[in-house]
Amino acid sequence: MPRWVVLLQFAFLVGCTSGTTKVVRLDTGQGGPIVHVPRRDMKTVDVGDDAFRKSVAKHARTVPTPARPLVHARQLFGVPEHSGWYRYERKSRRLLPLEAGNELKVALSPADAELNRLYFLWCGRAWGSPPGDCLRLLVDSPVLEGDGKYALAMAIAQGAVLGELKTAFGEMVSPEAVAAALVGAMTTYLLLWMLPEPISKGVAALMTVGMVSYLGWDMLWKLIDGWRVLVAKVERATTFEEIRAAGEQFAKVMGDKAAKAFVMLAMLAVGNTAAGMAAKMPTLPGAGQAAVVAEAQLIRYSAAALAEVESVAINAEGAVVVLAPNAVAMTARASGGAGSSAKAGFRSFKSMRDFKNAMGPAGEGKNWHQTSGNIERFGPDALHNTENAIAIDSQLHKQISAFYSSKQELTDNRVVREWLRGKSYEEQRDFGLMILRRFGVSP
């Protein structure tokens, strides 16, 4: 019996509906879960082109460049293969997965050959290099099929950001290999949500928390819905133009902000363990604003808090975030009433003048005090908001301001303000709350 090939496909059984009200449940392992209805009017984090390129250049060298990026990503995220090429072994009467390096001689149909040709040409145009398999999608298969087609659609959707990557990668030996690893990671991460019982763990869970922190829950659900549409269209696609159209439609759903956040988080995911990723996420551009969005969405965006995330599950009702046993950092503020009226009334402004115009005077004999600073690093939304400002006695405000202008032993005899400048948003906020308590203010 001659060797032959079959293509196996899994059915995608899960979906989200954007029209229904969803809730987020934070399972702390201590009593019942904290239930929260996410706000749908959160401002997403806007990362500038220059900051994005610098971040990509910084982390690109830690990204592995596997010969089989989709296989590597599936192993990283724990996602089973949705399709694959197999050979029939006559002696054992078994179907064996085709491994890298095995020869497979298949007569390509004219349609498959044309799809491969146009994919190669796209690679040449995208990277300004000779046509070829730039995303390494044909390493194990002679035909662009299954997950490979989804990856191509993802790369097309990220076309504008890939242009930024070319500039950021600079003189790297193989920028295409890094891009292939990132595209493989982003594709596989979204395929994770197509499984019958979708749940993310490890670096995948941190990617989910990161996406929520930069974009909000509502936008994440829209991305999943948009990806479901892409998958359905690519499943039926037989031409490059059909795949291109699906990718371009998803690009419109994603937008520039989500595209950049997705790439930055994927870069950390493929180059780190979960612990390493948790430590680096608060250092990404826009992390200060992301921390504000995260707290309004029931999570905290600090290295300690992120390290406590055990899993994130998506279901028809919303999402469930499960924390590691005895988690403390993630729930430090949520235990005081996440989803309360204060959270529901969260507002941010472009300037302190706008804040005061909207919120009014702090009160007789009082001043507005901000617990975190550094507008240059974190942006106005992270500072001029109802979670970062508190009304305190004006005389007490003068004393606290004087403290920040003084040199202290706890800051290694440096001026407190200057010492804080290099700290993360969460570190500055925690320090600010500690100082308020020291001066007798209950934040």
UniProtKB/TrEMBL annotation:
This is Lipoprotein. It comes from the Bacteria. It comes from Hyalangium rubrum.
